[in-house]
Amino acid sequence: MCGMNRRRVLALLPAFIAVSTLPACADKGTGPVEVRWGKENCAHCGMIVDDPRFAAQVRGGPKGKVWKFDDLGDAILWLAKQPFGDDPATEFWVGDSDKGGWLDGKAAWYLEGRKSPMAHNFGAVPDKRDGAVDFAQLKKTVLERGSPTQCITPTDGAS
Where are the domains of the chain? Predict the structure, then answer.
């Protein structure tokens, strides 16, 4: 190994692994990011984000920052207060309430009657089904109803 002894190779191995995997872990600037389930707080209500079936992420603003939410309804209420809320470049990602994984929230369909963490009670699915509403109708419904809980918003700003 080009004059390197085994001890030196083993000593450098952890650094090589860390550097070689760094690009894979880095934020790509678009799409959802990894969530540390049970360890991160909702940007709207402050509760722990721990159920992937109802979680949401918003990526937007001038720096493309990502905010995480425990309930997709909370994400809609929060987003309505942001100056970039209606910007077409703002991304809205939601958990697939049936199969897991992330869905483009603006293209997903929503079924009411699913028990969600903050009682908005909508679950996202990838395809149109009987009774499902599109993103525009979901947004209208959530904004009309407001927060079904007494949660206190820790921050209304996008800071």
Answer: 56-145
